[in-house]
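Here is an idea for our session: we take a single protein and study its fold together. To get us started, please write out a protein record for me. Once you have written the record down, we can walk along the chain together.
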Amino acid sequence: MSFDITQEQQMIEETLERLLADHWDRQKSHDAQALGAMRDAIWAQLGELGLLGALLPESWGGIGGGPGESLVMARVCGRLGADLPLLSSIVLAGGALLDIEAATLPFDPEQVASGRLRLALGVLEPGRRYASDGLTLQADADGDRWLLRGVKQHVLDGASADWLVLAAALGDAPHAPTGLFLVARDHPGLRCTEYPAVGGARLAHVACDRVSLPADALVARGAAASAAIERALQRARFWAAAETLGACEAALNQTIDYLRIREQFGRRLASFQALQHRLADAYSELELLRSQVLGARIALDEDPDGERARRDLAAACAMSAEVGDLIGREAIQLHGAIGMTQELGIGRYLMRVDFLWRLLGDARYQRERLLQVLPELESL
């Protein structure tokens, strides 16, 4: 098993790292207005450099990249603490539309790859935890049109998207099939209310009050729609695992550097054995996480729909949710009181990791998914 990346992936990693190192300012991320302007400026540059297309198919103007490209980009974002619409627009919403014929879409998909158009995916609903089936957003046939009524919650970057991809139940019958609808964010009858989440992320509450849509707004239905949603969530969870890995690497390295220069009782903190043991434990957990995430990348590359890919990804997600929280908290505690300050920013790694896994499935949920895909043990 080789964990090496290709030359093209290394080029993508280095280009993204240089761009974010020059233009991403973590201090500005505390201010919503400054954060929005900074994200927009970086997004435009990502489109010009072709980095957005690294995760999109050729029919969308991309290069058809897969888990390898997703790994290097998410890892860089995690290391530098960059919260960009890559997850919302490219990975989640874009991932749900990958099997849709580009010519049938109501927009030019190449505008997504160029950064001129953004998407957002709405799946979660109130009281449904992380379920993607049994939806309460309902689409009723109205002649040759559809009427949408209901709500979606926690739509990542929904208020800044141009188009929303909404999952809805087709009719009110029990176990009604799922449909995927493309709706313009400013469509009459649709209300998109933005609110902040931990770490500065922007979520939206989407309410549909008898939103009337043409027949071709339904881009997938039944098993195809359910598979598209699951594929999008799979891509997003792998991105979150890779971003968590990058965040843990940066948080631990920053903590080690701090302990090497900070002195107490006339000695450098790095010389205290108790602190060395805590760092060693954190490093061991990080190495396990790195192996698991890189192993999941290989399994997804070989067969994204295979049993091994589902198992390895579930294990990577379960470990990421727990190890990310552990290393984030250790980094704050080992910095002492200064670790709690907004100016230092070490706590942003913890906030970002916790946000990702509360959005895509917390540690308990990821463990439940892992147990579902593990093979049954034969009774002794």
The CA atoms of residues 41 and 106 lie 26 Å apart. The chain has ten helices and ten strands. The first strand starts at residue 119 and ends at 122.
